[in-house]
Amino acid sequence: MTTITFIEHDGTEHKVEAQEGISVMENAIQNGVPGIDADCGGQCSCATCHVYVDEAWMEKVGARSEMEVSMLDLNPESNEFSRLSCQIPVTQELDGLVVRTPEFQA
After folding, report:
1. What is the distance between the alpha carbons of residues 41 and 44, in angstroms, rounded to a whole number?
2. How far apart are CA 18 and CA 45, in angstroms?
3. Euclidean distance between CA atoms 2 and 7, whole angstroms
């Protein structure tokens, strides 16, 4: 299993033993992590699963697709570390991943 640490805007940490082969968002939902709304169910069409990836993990999570960039551009809170968690597949290489959730989802 792969461990992912979700850190809420207030600093509360949630360590999740993540299932590989599904997205970071799906793992958050399955484990009741607050701050991930996922209104579209992971279709990259709502940006309510926005997270900030810890800088040390940016290369390992991969590049954003054009669709993901378009969705993040609509969010005034996005920055260079922003990703849609529905677009990050969990693999063994992501063991130890740290992501932060924003105070509010767009």
Report:
1. 8
2. 23
3. 16
Concatenated DSSP letters for the chain?
-EEEEEE-TTS-EEEEEEPTTSBHHHHHHHTT-TT---TTSSSSSS-TTEEEE-GGGHHHH-PPPHHHHHHHHT-TT--TTEEEGGG-B--GGGTTEEEE--SS--
Paired residues of 100 in beta bridges: 7, 52
Topology classification of domain 2-100: Ubiquitin-like (UB roll) (3.10.20)
CA-nearest of 39, 32, 38 to 16 is 32
Q: Are 99 and 6 in contact (CB under 8 A)?
A: yes
pLDDT of residue 106: 78
What does the domain layout of the chain look like in residue ranges?
Answer: 2-100
| Single-letter amino acid code for the residue at 20 | E
Provide mean pLDDT across the span 73-93.
96
Specify the pLDDT at position 1: 83
What is the residue-averaged pLDDT of the chain? 96
